[in-house]
Amino acid sequence: MEPIHDARGAPGDGHFAGLFAGAWLSRQPAAFRQHLIAVGRRAFYGRRYPIGFEGDDDRRILGIVSGSIGCLTSHRQHMPVLGTIIGPGQWFGMGPQLIGSERILSFVAREPSELISLGDTELWRLREAFPDLPQRLAGLAQLQSNHIAGLVAELLVPEADRRIAAVLLRLCEPGSGKDSLPLSQSELGEMANASRASVSRTLRVLAQRGLVEVGYGRIAVEDRAGLEAWFETSRTVA
Amino acid sequence: MEPIHDARGAPGDGHFAGLFAGAWLSRQPAAFRQHLIAVGRRAFYGRRYPIGFEGDDDRRILGIVSGSIGCLTSHRQHMPVLGTIIGPGQWFGMGPQLIGSERILSFVAREPSELISLGDTELWRLREAFPDLPQRLAGLAQLQSNHIAGLVAELLVPEADRRIAAVLLRLCEPGSGKDSLPLSQSELGEMANASRASVSRTLRVLAQRGLVEVGYGRIAVEDRAGLEAWFETSRTVA
């Protein structure tokens, strides 16, 4: 897939703050971060623009500077469903580069998004300056594995209404600047494996308590502490 | 955790076949596999023996030679549940070594199991012979990430009865030598996020059709192709 625009070069300080705040780059030395920005290609995708497909072997590793990316997964070649949404500082698409496999997920921009892309050439240049790059990439893959294991733990919560709350709490993490999400009820249901009826019932309950606000195609967490407390104490099955 | 027995050394050919058949080592050259066995420590765990706990920082990377290991996960410090069961050729516990983090899962032997363990010293020795070890470990972490993403896809299957079938199909993979699993109905329910009633109803239906056989604390897949066909066509909600 060709991005809408592609260029090298680093805009002024602060532009890449979102990328650097993620779990991986925040652990890397400043010199590594700067070099990564210098060699990486900037790529811009519009809303609904596909970035990669399950089955392709695009070897680019992609990091999110701004915007958000939907990760679609399918079980045994069934219809893909929205598995999760990732945002600034998160990376995706490492499989083809690290194990020479095809992509196992599809990725779509959910809003205008800026990415940094590291293909074979960029990684080679980065490794010239940082010969321990493979070790750093092993750390990235492990962080990814831990992150996805967290999704498993979330999907093992028995009650649908609590899974819905858990997804909202995760996607609206404090500091992410995301207290309001462009998110439909059916997308929320896909990520929480909850029926449309469950989602609508749960959101109604949560809105009545002032914990969330539901707009057209948007959901906002209004009271994070309250939603956490509701998650911990609620035992109703939606 | 101290294993029941611990020793270096490689028994005769064939002993490590299970370890080598897994997704990671099967891609490594024979010289690497042999060196790994030579430097690795063998460790034996009895049934129900804990191997590692969520929150510990044991830096050993562990590979399964024989037996099976239950991986327990907990969401927001709630009661741990059985997330999955892994067997010969699979590796676990890479987090502390690769990102210096604490373990995010707990691991328990489900039957007498033999493991190969690679701690700091063993990895250092392996790296002396194979300076590209970090790259190989990046591949291992990526394979792990792909594997766990598969669990997410499975848990996003909407119908509980089909999730139950999917778990059985995954755990009884052909070639794993596991057509019968030491598995209780409540453990199956935990892994599939299905209620006890769903599990018992689904197993009854599958047994009536001759697809599975349910014994005391054991479940056997009798007709794998039939179970796959049932998974693909069934749309009943258990």
UniProtKB/TrEMBL annotation, chains A, B:
Residues 158-225 form the HTH crp-type domain. GO terms for molecular function: DNA binding. It comes from the Bacteria. The keyword DNA-binding applies. Signal peptide: none annotated. Keywords: DNA-binding, Transcription, Transcription regulation. The lineage of its organism: Bacteria, Pseudomonadati, Pseudomonadota, Alphaproteobacteria, Sphingomonadales. GO terms for biological process: regulation of DNA-templated transcription. Residues 54-126 form the Cyclic nucleotide-binding domain. This is HTH crp-type domain-containing protein.
